[in-house]
Amino acid sequence: MQKTIVCFGEIMLRLAPFHKERLIQASVLQVIYGGGEANVAASLALLGNKARFVTRLPQNPLGDAAISRLRALGVDTRFIARGGDRIGIYFLEHGASIRPSRVVYDRACSAISQASPEDFDWQQIFSDAFWFHIT
């Protein structure tokens, strides 16, 4: 039986203008879900490993979409806790020529920032784990 790699952290909603526009110029934003640990879990799953992502997400369509995206990549999302009011968001302006990329974070009071250890069934989460990834 293949052992599981457990990743714990925040998954965020990234909003970015298309075509290297600045935020002030954009009328449409690209939506991407990601974060350090979520990206590791997704990459491991795509490489054929058994990967589990653990976090806390709001019980709303944004939380549902983040979970759906992870599942589509083969990540085990069974232990994602639901609660809180919001998902962390960041806005990314891609650099162009000599203009550097710029990131604006809006993650105060995100669901994971208000999580407590009791929100998670740690015994079950680690029942088949051989590695724990956290940053």
Number of domains: 1
- Radius of gyration equals 16 Å
Q: What is the level-2 CATH architecture name?
A: 3-Layer(aba) Sandwich
Using DSSP, what is the number of strands?
Answer: 9
Written as H for each helix and E for each strand, in order along the chain, the element string is EEEHEEHEEEHE
Whole-number mean pLDDT: 97
Q: How are the strands of the largest sheet arranged?
A: 3-2-7-8
Q: What portion of residues belong to β-strands?
A: 25-35%
Secondary structure tally, helices: 3
Query: CATH superfamily name?
Result: Ribokinase
Please identify the top-level CATH class: Alpha Beta
- What name is given to the CATH topology? UDP-N-acetylmuramoyl-L-alanine:D-glutamate ligase
Give the distance, in angstroms, between the N- and C-terminal Cα atoms: 27 Å
Rough outline: globular
Measured as a percent range, the helix fraction is 10-25%
Compact overview of the structure:
The chain is an alpha/beta fold and 135 residues long. It is built from three helices and nine strands; from the N terminus they run E-E-E-H-E-E-H-E-E-E-H-E. Keywords: Kinase, Transferase.
Give the secondary structure arrangement, pairings included:
Blueprint: E1 4-8, E2 12-17, E3 29-34, H1 36-46, E4 50-54, E5 56-57, H2 61-72, E6 81-82, E7 89-93, E8 102-106, H3 122-125, E9 129-133
Parallel strand pairs: 1-4, 1-9, 2-7, 5-6
Antiparallel strand pairs: 2-3, 7-8
